[in-house]
Amino acid sequence: CVYANQWNYGHLGPDIWSEYYPLCAGKSQSPINILTACTLYRDIKPFQFISAHATKNYFTVKNNGHTIISIINNAYEQLSIQLRGGGLNGTFDFVNFHLHWGENHKSGSEHQINGIKYAGEIHFVYKNHLTSQMAVLALFMQSYVDHTKIISDNNDQTRDEWQRYFDMTRLLKFENDSVLLDLNVTSLMGENLQDFWRYEGSLTTPPCTEG
């Protein structure tokens, strides 16, 4: 079980986050319900996944009391993971990736598409250290009887990489439990990452930083 004292989705849920984290009352908060009929098409340069996205990297995968978060383990000499393009301003360095899920296969995602939620949502978080701007690539997950599927995924490599991840994270039952796991970020993200919705928002959990 994942528990935390500072905030959660129960009695310390989103409705009162702004009482303790003022930024959560901002005007550009995430998540949102994306209404496809209200979106505008823009010809944006594709994302550029630089350096070590396509190689194995060692991650510390940890139950932090809110979610399961994966951070690069700096004890190993590894290439940096960076992101450009996609309408972003400059180069963004990888910070972490983490998951959001719910009590059933229909309510786990934070964002909605035309009012519809998905089983889960994966956030790949990046930061531009020159401007302090954050960028989050969010991927939806669908749940099937025998496995969980990333919406952008249509290959066995992505499915196998996530299966390795889930096999290990099942062991992280208590807060601060962690494991060391080598993962390929490109495989985790899957394919078809050049079609996306983009908007100016915030971190979806406290401190709810915008921009």
TrEMBL record:
Reactions that this protein is recorded to catalyse: hydrogencarbonate + H(+) = CO2 + H2O
Cofactor(s) required, per the database record: Zn(2+)
Taxonomy, superkingdom: Eukaryota
Keywords: Lyase, Metal-binding, Zinc
Entries under InterPro entries matching the protein: CA_dom, CA_dom_sf, Carbonic_anhydrase_a-class, Carbonic_anhydrase_a-class_CS
The keyword Glycoprotein appears for this protein: no
Residue ranges constituting the Alpha-carbonic anhydrase domain according to the UniProt record: 5-211
Gene Ontology molecular function: carbonate dehydratase activity; zinc ion binding
Gene3D superfamilies per UniProt: Alpha carbonic anhydrase (3.10.200.10)
EC number in record: 4.2.1.1
Record carries keyword Lyase: yes
Assigned protein family: Belongs to the alpha-carbonic anhydrase family.
Protein role: Reversible hydration of carbon dioxide.
PANTHER family: CARBONIC ANHYDRASE
Protein name per its UniProtKB record: Carbonic anhydrase
Organism lineage string: Eukaryota, Metazoa, Spiralia, Gnathifera, Rotifera
